[in-house]
Amino acid sequence: MATGPVIEDKTFLEFHDNDIIVRSWKVEDLPTVLVLCKKFAVTQNMPTKFMTTKKLAEDGFGEHPWFHSWLAETTTSGEPITIGFAMVSLSWDMCRGLVLEGLYTDENWRKKGVARKLVKAVAEFALENSCKYIKWMSLKDNDNANSFYNKIAKLYGPVNECYVKVT
């Protein structure tokens, strides 16, 4: 079991931009979210042919969802445009935790704080649900993702290569 520091300093996760909103997915978001999920899958060398709005609806909504998710929207052009998402599944490794299954930001919105806002939503969800850790994975050659996760680990103390303790 991973151990590490308590998250107290959230300055890296704080991002103030009234034009970027993070909220939970709704069923009506699924066609738009599916496009981003498929883009994410391509970056992870994962197949996309099994991804459908029906499958996302079945697995993400209902009495016992298999995942929880958030999307980031911008209103800079007046109408909301979806620019990223985060998806977690529940985990149990001798205590409650989360696995960050997907974190994706549209290419035009990278390095603008969108991923930080999404991770902040995930961390808040973890704390609200008495989770003790968040686990993530990224491809070795995904320099952007690895740099981002290393910043999180530096702030909260690397527990190992993919864990950060949240309580």
Automatic annotation (TrEMBL):
Domain of life according to the entry: Eukaryota
InterPro entries (UniProt xref): Acyl_CoA_acyltransferase, Diverse_Substrate_AcTransf, GNAT_dom
CDD domains, per database record: NAT_SF
Pfam assignment, any one: Acetyltransf_1
Keywords noted in UniProt: Acyltransferase, Transferase
Keyword Protein biosynthesis part of the UniProt annotation: no
Transferase recorded as keyword: yes
Domain N-acetyltransferase: 20-167
PROSITE patterns: GNAT (PS51186)
GO molecular function: N-acetyltransferase activity
Coiled-coil region(s): none
Family that this chain belongs to: Belongs to the acetyltransferase family.
Matches recorded under PANTHER family: DIAMINE N-ACETYLTRANSFERASE, GH14572P-RELATED
Name this polypeptide is given: N-acetyltransferase domain-containing protein
Source organism (scientific name): Oopsacas minuta
Phylogenetic placement of the source organism: Eukaryota, Metazoa, Porifera, Hexactinellida, Hexasterophora
